[in-house]
Amino acid sequence: MSAAGTPGRRGPTAWIDDLALGVRLSVAGGRSGWARLAMIAAGVGLGVAMLLAATAMPTAGAARSDRSAAREPGPRVTAPGPDTLLHGEVPSQWGAIRIDGRLLQPEGDRAPVPPGLERHPAPGEMVVSPALAALLDSPDAGLLRERWDARVVGTIAPEGLAGPSDHLFYQGADHLDADSYGVARIDRFGGQDFGEPGGLPPALLVLAILGLVVLLLPVMIFVTTAVRFGSESRDRQLAAIRLVGADGATTRRIAAGETLAGTVLGMVVGALLFLASRHLVGDLLPAGYDFFPADLRPVPALVALVALAVPTAAVLVTLSALRRVMIEPLGVVRRGGERRRRLWWRLLPPAAGLLLLVPLLDGLPENGDALVEARITAGVTLLLVGVVLLLPWLVQVVVRRLGGGGVAWELAVRRLQLDSDTAVRAVAGIAVSVAGIVAVQGLLGSTQTAFAGRHGDTDRFQASVAFYGQPAGWPAGRAASALADTPGVDAVDAVSHLRTDPDAPDPVSVRIAGCDALRHYADLPTCADGDSFVAAGRDRPAIAPGTTLTFQDEGVESRWTVPTGMRGVAQYDPLLGTDILVTPGAFDAAHEPYTFLVGLDPAEPEAVEHLRNTVHRIDPFAHLLDFDDPYHDSVFAMVERALRAGAVALLLLIGASMLVNVLEQLRERRRLLAVLAAFGTRRRTLSGSVLYQVAIPVLLGLSLAVATGSALAAILLAVVDEPIAFDWAAIAGVAGTAAVMVLAVTAATLPLLWRLTRAEGLRAE
Known about the structure:
Layout: H1 12-26, H2 30-71, E1 85-89, E2 92-94, E3 97-106, E4 125-128, H3 130-137, H4 142-147, E5 151-155, E6 168-172, E7 183-186, H5 202-226, H6 232-243, H7 248-276, H8 278-281, H9 300-321, E8 325-328, E9 331-334, H10 348-357, H11 370-401, H12 407-418, H13 421-452, E10 463-466, H14 476-484, E11 489-499, E12 509-513, H15 515-521, E13 522-523, E14 532-535, E15 548-553, E16 556-561, E17 567-571, E18 580-582, E19 595-600, H16 607-618, E20 623-626, H17 630-668, H18 670-678, H19 683-719, H20 728-756
Subcellular location: Cell membrane
Pfam families: FtsX
InterPro entries: ABC3_permease_C (IPR003838), Membrane_comp_ABC_pdt (IPR038766)
């Protein structure tokens, strides 16, 4: 101790000695010291576990991508040989579950075997993933078992699956033709150069970045709050250190070392929590994005960054917290007095965030590069950091102007006027979480709304079927009859889509269908057989009446003359790219329709599954599109559930931090509370003051969070070119959870409050 107390010591040696002494004192502080160590370790451990999960995401994603690439068919080869294989993709679906199917027909005894399989399945056999095997064995999957005329002979090993929820099968075949649609002749799996990756669509890219920032920023705030956990025993210990001769700087370094011990222990706890919960992380992701627990391996460089940043932040936060504490030999005194907070520098981070995001308001490139992702990440982070910086100023400005009220109100307001730092630190995490959730909900809700309207008018037709080329033995009329005879199908209308030479300048596309079918694609005021319409809003030269258009359809050339008097109509989905809509009576060129719009009976819940079975029987390579696709609804619902679960977890995490902070404030005011009780102040009044003291910063924080989150959502929706929409029910749910948490924190502090108001609290040493 004498070395530690030597005045004027400088240099790294003094820091190391004092930090080491603090570490030793942290484990020798008795029951209260161990309690503080445990609180810091638990708080830091929870935060570090979440940070480690985030550092493992790149590795998990890469492992999933590598397995997916390894099972993709290799480059096409032209000639058959002993090492070639005919490979056909036949995707399917069951409710909200996407099923990836592959047909295999070896042309030689050395044909490549897909990863995860021991041999090629023979015709009439299929090998399925464990998830698909469980689905096929379920009692309500009878229609699905009828879809494939094959016997399950095995399961795919994990090395052939992207993730545990993959629904994949390989089926043996003997009827594939290398020249048919969807069939490729290959001599290996994997190794094909697909060029530059396409990346995520803009809306999903922004949503992923926003979700990552919303998850990690409150965690970092929580970690920095956890290392401030203290107790009266630590105050006595610091005073004792001063009493034996240590100066103020040495005492603060020793306190930092004590916190460092809890932080290091918390990092060990976080690593153990991460290892124990690896199998749960993948379950929080939507189907198609999950991974095996073994894939969750943190990136070493990111782990090193966490291992360095967390202890460093703990030491710096402790030293910062002790700046306003006077540690004297006879006790510890916290400096009071009002410090007027300045606004100008708190506006710099959100202003910088706006400067990064505003240039992107014209839209993102379809395949965003790393620079765009970095700008979005930095912009979103700076805007949310602005919430943390603005909240202390907002609380101080508001409480300074609050008027009088009851005794409980006066006690709480005066306490916040004197020192609101402790309350604001806990509320900052709540504010950041709610602001991010509001922004995510706005982006998610708008994307979901835009997707729902992408398939046009679905009142009469709820699905479409496209046959690529004439299926063997199924002329258009027979295919239409088979579709119409399917249980649960009410209507079938044929649609033809013809296009002029795509290599010619400004090729013209024409859609031929009856009036009912055309109304699915465009808003037609009136329609009768023989009418023609031109799509309005198309960025292309006008098509002059009398122009003769030449089409090639399945090798058959046909000509059609553009009529006069075509009316302009608006398409529901401009992405369909149709220039002219024509009824059959106005189109006299030869064409064979192999696209059909299908109306389903709403009283038949499995109508679409019956339709999928019929389509698969006609042509397994056909494409069936369910306009009310439950898969996308399930993905959105899964993302929304994960978002709400993460929000609640973060709020509970921060609520625990707030509880500890409120308990610490009560201990600091124990003598004042005992005096108030001795003068006749009722317990109900003191309890109300604690409630107001917690509720006022929370209310201000939530107001700032909703305003910031709404503004951020509006900016991001403009970036991805989507209409603004908010899920107010979800926002109200998060705000309600915060309100319940305030009540829970208040209720949890009452036992200590009542104990501190006893007469024993008047004693002083």
